[in-house]
Write a structure and sequence with these properties.
By secondary structure, the protein is an all-alpha fold. It has one domain. The protein is built from 14 helices and no strands. The chain is elongated, with a radius of gyration of 20 Å.
Length: about 350
């Protein structure tokens, strides 16, 4: 891989990390801002710091090797097929990163919570078709299963937690002040969990690119990469994706502090399961949106605006297909530019 291609892959990986923090800032702070448990500026700063710390913690626990990165991203067939053509592999990685960045930007503009992981996996399927190799169907199959089961689990847990909080409130064992105070801790858990989970994606892409270029991520290089990705995620979070915050906090339902506490606690549990249990990425966007709906149903079905919920679900279903098409098109253009 040429130095220029390598530099482009690293730069775009950091851009994706920044966009991921910007796009998913709503996961940690939408409920606390809407319920006024925290001021918007305080919530953003807290989320940015915790996203950064979560990313650093998660990355520090990793053994940053090419096999780890390939396995995490499900790019085994693609890397095997293009191993003898490092420039073409670099172009493929660029196509994946551009697709992921553009999809996050589009869904932010629409105010729709969506999954960065699913955008990336969808793009990898499209690129695999252009290259003429098979996608990692086992990895994609696991992603589909997790995508179907994860939101159901999140909604169910949020529903049960909301029922518990309501009973405690009726028994005067948990007042509004206690709920808002507890909400700051649940929001912190979501922020740290998001950094821990999602920082792995851009880092893994860089590790593959470095391995292809003959540079192993070790020592000072590994530390620099970890800090750079973590800071990029945190910086993006600090900017805040207010369009998606409005969707989660006001358009899906009129969020209460109790509902916010139940939703954030459920999302934190689900994402923790993905990192420490399934070893498969679970979208924090999907987890929180589903949890907001589940907690809303516990208050009464009419409190949920089902038209907005259907729009969010449609975006989730379209994400892998649209990104597969865009990824395939971008890689086709990249191969033409590289020439034979």
């Amino acid at each position: 891989m040429t130095p220029l291609l390598l530099a482009l892959v690293v730069t775009l990986s950091l851009a994706v990390a920044y966009m991921n923090g910007f796009h998913d800032a709503s996961n940690a702070i939408s409920t606390t801002i809407t319920t006024r448990a925290l001021r918007a500026s305080s919530a953003l700063w807290a989320a940015a710091v915790l996203n950064t710390l979560g990313a650093l913690l998660g990355l520090a626990l990793l053994a940053m090797t090419v096999p780890w990165a390939v396995r995490l991203l499900g790019l085994g067939p693609l890397v095997d097929s293009l191993g003898a053509a490092p420039d073409v592999l670099g172009a493929a990685l660029l196509a994946l990163l551009i697709t992921t960045f553009c999809w996050d930007l589009l869904t932010w503009w629409l105010g729709m919570p969506s999954s960065t992981w699913h955008a990336f996996f969808g793009a990898s399927s499209g690129v695999a078709l252009v290259v003429g190799t098979s996608a990692a169907w086992d990895r994609l199959g696991l992603m589909v299963v997790v995508s179907l089961v994860g939101p159901v689990i999140s909604a169910t847990v949020a529903y049960l937690l909301m029922q518990l909080i309501q009973r405690l409130a009726r028994a005067e064992l948990m007042g509004p002040g206690t709920i808002r105070f507890a909400q700051t801790f649940s929001a912190s858990a979501v922020a740290a969990g998001h950094g821990l989970s999602d920082a792995r994606l851009p880092l893994a892409v860089v590790v593959i690119a470095l391995g292809t270029a003959g540079h192993g991520p070790s020592g000072t290089t590994a530390m620099t990469l970890m800090v750079s990705v973590a800071v990029a995620v945190g910086a993006g979070t600090l900017m805040g994706g207010h369009r998606i915050i409005r969707t989660l906090g006001r358009r899906l339902t009129d969020l209460t502090a109790a509902q916010g506490l139940a939703a954030e606690s459920s999302a934190a549990m689900t994402t923790s399961l993905s990192v420490f249990g399934l070893q498969s990425p679970v979208s924090t966007s999907q987890a929180l949106a589903s949890s907001v709906v589940g907690a809303g149903v516990a208050r009464g079905r009419r409190t949920v605006r089902w038209r907005v919920a259907r729009e969010v679900l449609l975006v989730w279903l379209v994400t892998p297909v649209a990104c597969a098409v865009l990824g395939a098109a971008l890689h086709g253009v990249g191969r033409e530019l590289l020439g034979p």
